[in-house]
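Z., the sequence and structure:
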Amino acid sequence: MLLNPKEITREFLKKSLVKNKLVKIAIAYSCRRLDSSDLSYLRGIDDRVDLVGPDEMASLLARRYPNLAREHLGIEVGTGQIMSLDEFESAVEKNSFASTLKVDLLGRDKETDELLATLEGNQFVLVYGRPGCGKTRLCVEVLRRYADDSGAYPLVIQSNKMPIWNDLANDVPKEESSILLLDDANELSGLEGFASFVSSRDNIKVLMTVRNYAFEYVKSSVSRFCKPCPYEVGPLDEETALGVVENGFGIAKGRASADIIRLSRGNMRLACAAAEVAKERGIEVFSTMPSLIEACYGEKASSLSGDAKRAATIVSVLDPHRVEGNEDLDRLLAKVGISYDRYVDACTALCHDELVDACQGMVAVAPGEQVLRDYLLYRAFIVEKSLSLSDVDELK
């Protein structure tokens, strides 16, 4: 219906609409001749009036679908840390070291139900566990289920180390309910500010994932503004893990699936990586750990940049170590030909890929990726001979 703004009056609405059954009155306009007084007049007719014009549509598109502006207009809206669930899953797929999230969640019904119940009574839920145990996949399922059941708007936050305050102000719905998944909470720049923002809004629920070594750091960082409810995720039992490999990836029941579970040592990220390789290449049996590691990591490790590969090798040699004032680190940096600053940058990137752990000035191979450590040492000392045993003997 095309009307002049002055034709829309309280009397017109009263005659045209049934008041008791109406929740919202949407008035769409595209006419640029409307000035601020016209808009103020329309808003004042009824407290249920919601104006939808070019400015509102542009703001909504920028807030909800920033990738459209980025892909089609070349305009960067925000820092790109807040995204839809589909965008997050696609981003994970592009990480060659990450396990796919696009696989059925098996054996976690109890944990899913408990987390959904926990969200009902808590604004912040902190999900923690060892790397590779399946925290993120579990929380993705909980996020989807909670959003479907409650109607809350689901969003995922994946840190890129940039300030996130403006993204929160622009991308998180101001009035409607929303549920946020903050993956790897310890990596977020301005974690305290995030907690402050969310705690001031009673229409937001938050799931945070964190590796067990950084649990206390995240908990203490947000404690000024909230008391997150902790929830620990343990490894899957062997029978359930076999079901994931066999049913999730189509690996025939038998020696192949049993060897994958046995050799992955409870690390479901490694088990899923091995299952993907077996499905793609037709490898039926991984009889030894070296054969499984080579199949899962050989091609991917060779794709690491020079700095990343050198940094990963140094971390494998030193294992847990402090990055500042460390003579052993300085000696190895000189040996492999990489500067301190480049080493720190490379470790940051490896941490994002969950290949190393970095927290409060300490760096180590992620506990769930010890098999990768063995592989990198094998490559450095045996295959490439980039390091020798005498280099290690010189370390303190």
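The longest strand covers residues 204-211. The chain is about 50% helix and 15% strand.

Let me know what you think.
H.
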